Every structure is written in structure tokens, then in C-alpha cells.
Fold this sequence. Notes:
The structure holds 2 protein chains of 2 kinds.
Chain A: E1 9-12, E2 18-23, E3 35-40, E4 47-50, E5 64-69, E6 72-77, E7 86-93, E8 99-101, E9 105-109
Parallel strand pairs in A: 1-9
Antiparallel strand pairs in A: 2-6, 3-4, 3-7, 5-6, 7-8, 7-9
Chain B: E1 3-7, E2 10-12, E3 18-25, E4 34-39, E5 45-51, E6 58-60, E7 68-73, E8 78-83, E9 92-101, E10 107-113, E11 117-121
Parallel strand pairs in B: 2-11
Antiparallel strand pairs in B: 1-3, 3-8, 4-5, 4-9, 5-6, 7-8, 9-10, 9-11
Amino acid sequence: xxxxxxxxxxxxxxxxxxxxxxxxxxxxxxxxxxxxxxxxxxxxxxxxxxxxxxxxxxxxxxxxxxxxxxxxxxxxxxxxxxxxxxxxxxxxxxxxxxxxxxxxxxxxxx
Amino acid sequence: xxxxxxxxxxxxxxxxxxxxxxxxxxxxxxxxxxxxxxxxxxxxxxxxxxxxxxxxxxxxxxxxxxxxxxxxxxxxxxxxxxxxxxxxxxxxxxxxxxxxxxxxxxxxxxxxxxxxxxxxxxx
Lengths: 110, 123
């Protein structure tokens, strides 16, 4: 099964909002509300920032929000800050795989 | 505080073996499925393997099936990944990951990650 499709890069200025898309199929994103998102700074382990499509773990900024429509999930970062510059990965439960990741999106704060 | 600490990575020749270990603390290991996820430096995350709470059910990515074996020792709070017949394409950072499960043990999220251990397969 191929990776979920994410844009390679997204950029924005401080204070702006950006959205990262994550495109899958009816076998993964389209069938389950089990999409999660991870933030990874260089040389660090990934950190969970969204799970169950739109839930935030304790301690994660309200500026991060998630949504889903059909076979596509999205992560929105509002009020972009310098510390948000990182790689972001989406992930979906897929039953047979049993999980599939996106290829990753590099977020640059201009 | 939840902690996952991997060890055992290193340089190995193609065809060789390595055994990765993940020492866990701060939570009852026997109540969580555990996974290994790998990442080629500069590339994306790839799921490798998982093991259920009791250690009786294991699953592997097609790319490692028949070569890797995941195991756990709940009494010692450790998870292992035995890697045999290693290939150049197995070169990656390997992360030990705790999973939050949902109904019927579906994967809701990977909520805690170790710092990773680097495996380099090269002659």
C-alpha cells in the first residue's frame, strides 16, 4: 500500500494560518476516523499533535487543529510561530497494513 | 513520566544481524501494544512491526516479514526487535513506539516515541 499523499512543503509568515493536506483512499482515511498527525523537529523523535482526526493531546497548542472530508485529512496551524517550523506527518489506520503514514510535509516559517 | 529508550543499533554488514531493545518505564507495559517504526534519515516514517499486550500476536511489514522478529518481556519492561538477513535498505533510525488503541485494538495514535537508534547496513 502506498504512502498517504502530502505536499512536500508549505510555508507561511508568522501569524498566518497554513493547512497541510493528506490524501488517502477509501481503504484508509475514507473508512476510519483514525487519522493522527505528528510534528518532528530535526534530529528529534516525532510528537503526536492530533489524533482521532481532530483531538489534541494534553499540552498541545490550540493553534493545531485537524479535520477530514472523504478520503482527505487536513492539519491547520493557526497563528504560525517560528517554533512550528518542522516536518509534519499524517497517519491513518488501514486495517490490513495496519497503519500507513504520509510522506511528510516540511513547514517553513518565512 | 513515560520513557522509551532504544539501544542496540550500529553498523552491520549485509546479511548480518542486530537485536534492538527498548527499555520502557513510567507506565504498565503489559497494557499496551508496542510497535517499531523506522525512518531513513531525511525521509518519511515507515511502520515496521507490532506486538500485542501478551506477546502472542505479531504483525510485520512485507519488507521485513520473515527476517525480523518482535518480542517483549513484560516482567522486564522491554521490547525487542531481532533483525536478521539485514539489507542495505534496512538502514534507518528505528523508533520504539507506544500505541493508543481503540475498539477491537485498532490503532488510534502513536502517543509516545523513543529517541531512536540508528542501524546502518553497509559493507
